[in-house]
């Protein structure tokens, strides 16, 4: 399962997001604990260990071994063989559906400083950007 919170969400028209949605794997909306920041061209997310903030996004079912994982990793500047040199890191996270059901998913957390970036108060990049 993949949790997306930025330009790959339905509604942005990103080619990779369209391919992801077109795979028939969309599982609906969810949220994760974290903070969302406006980087300029896209949002970045950091975990919130205190659980005060939420990031709104979408869940996609994506099997291990699906070639889209490699494309997503490249798009997110994540090298599984060298996470320390990556801008983002793909990590496991608990996502909560509107029903309250929790599911395990993967998310791309930002690894660099957010100093000078504006926090997206709503945690919803789609509402923020449109």
List the helices and strands and how they pair.
Blueprint: E1 2-4, H1 15-22, E2 26-38, E3 43-47, E4 54-60, H2 67-75, E5 88-96, E6 102-110, E7 118-119, H3 125-129
Distance between the termini: 26 Å
Mean pLDDT: 93
Helical fraction: 10-25%
Rg (C-alpha, Å): 14 Å
Question: Could you name the ranges where pLDDT drops below 50 across 5 or more consecutive residues?
Answer: none
Q: Which topology does CATH recognise?
A: Hypothetical upf0131 protein ytfp
The assigned structural class equals alpha+beta
Counting DSSP H or I runs of 4 or more residues, the number of helices is 3
What are the secondary-structure elements, in order, as H or E?
Answer: EHEEEHEEEH
Second rung of CATH, namely the architecture: Roll
Instruction: Give the overall silhouette.
Output: globular
Structural overview:
Helices cover 17% and strands 37% of the residues. The protein is of the alpha+beta class. The chain has a single domain (2-129), classed as Hypothetical upf0131 protein ytfp (Roll). The longest helix has 9 residues, at 67-75.
Short description:
The chain is of the alpha+beta class. It has helices spanning 15-22, 67-75, 125-129; strands at residues 2-4, 26-38, 43-47, 54-60, 88-96, 102-110, 118-119.
